[in-house]
Write a structure and sequence with these properties.
single chain; 11 helices
């Protein structure tokens, strides 16, 4: 009976392993990469938390040693048991503190030595700076893991808060459509780059989140400088592509297309956008570049806008 149960358990474990490997094989590469980075950051975060616990223990131990040593010295001083006559049989006078033949007692010397040793150990272990450094590392790793987790959720199709109405698109959906139209990879870096770009524009122009002025049939003017409202998402995407390709050399848009084609880091792509003539000098010179970290830190929320 036991042998049969053991065999059944082995079979179940084997089936679970097969299902797990099949699921991993079916995971899209970008999502799998984001999940791997999340796991790696989790492991590093665990290590940083261990360092924090060790640093805290050192600080507590040093603080306790200093407190005990200081209390002993203070107690001996208060009790007047710190000095004795150098010669045996001497008699204490009323002014014993000023007597030239008085020397520290062995107990007082031991207490002072213990206090100095505790002070040296506290300085040598450098507990407080290590504690602060460990906490900063935890904060950095936690923020990085939140970014990767949000990106993995977005790539896996996990639901995100929707702030758009019927017939509209989220920033991520529009970014995906644009990347497909220019034959650029729909990678995590590019999604962050284009969501950041749309966030920087923050326009309500219809089907035109990057605020292009490219003419097209069926458009209307959104504002006095010629930004257009487009009749459909496809029309807006086509106009944006035409703008980028039309200014490949003359407006510096070629570098934007190149960075998107190579799935460059969002900070690099944002730099290409910033240096082009799309909105040179906007946002005090920090157009797009000034928002990359903010969007990357809370990608899911910005992508749903």
């Amino acid at each position: 009976m036991r042998r049969g149960l053991f065999a059944a358990a082995l079979a179940a474990a084997a089936l679970a392993a097969i299902q797990s490997s099949t699921a991993l094989a079916a995971t899209p590469p970008l999502l799998w990469s984001a999940l791997q980075r999340t796991d790696a950051l989790t492991a590093r975060l665990d290590g940083a938390r261990l360092q924090l616990r060790v640093a805290r223990a050192d600080v507590r131990r040093n603080a306790l040693s200093l407190e005990r040593a200081s209390e002993r010295v203070a107690r001996l001083q208060a009790q007047g048991g710190t000095l004795r006559y150098a010669a045996r049989g001497g008699r204490r006078s009323q002014h014993w503190l000023h007597h030239p033949r008085l020397v520290p007692t062995p107990g007082y010397r031991t207490a002072v030595a213990a206090l100095r040793r505790a002070q040296r150990e506290a300085t040598a272990t450098d507990g407080f700076p290590r504690l602060a450094a460990a906490q900063r590392r935890i904060d950095r790793l936690s923020a990085a893991r939140r970014r990767e987790r949000a990106l993995a959720d977005a790539l896996s199709g996990a639901p995100v808060p929707a702030t758009v109405g019927p017939g509209e698109q989220t920033r991520e959906q529009w970014a995906t459509a644009l990347l497909q139209a220019i034959d650029a990879p729909v990678c995590g870096n590019n999604l962050v780059s284009l969501v950041t770009w749309q966030t920087a524009e923050n326009t309500t122009a219809v089907w035109n989140p990057l605020a292009t002025t490219q003419p097209a049939p069926g458009t209307t003017d959104y504002n006095s400088v010629g930004v257009k409202n487009y009749p459909s998402s496809a029309a807006g995407i086509a106009a944006t592509v035409a703008t980028l390709r039309g200014g490949y050399v003359t407006q510096g848009y070629g570098w934007i297309l190149y960075r998107l084609a190579t799935c460059a880091d969002p900070s690099v792509t944002a730099g290409a956008i910033n240096q082009s003539n799309w909105c040179r000098g906007c946002a005090g010179g920090a157009y797009v570049t000034g928002m990359v970290d903010e969007v990357r830190a809370d990608y899911a929320a910005y992508a749903a806008g």
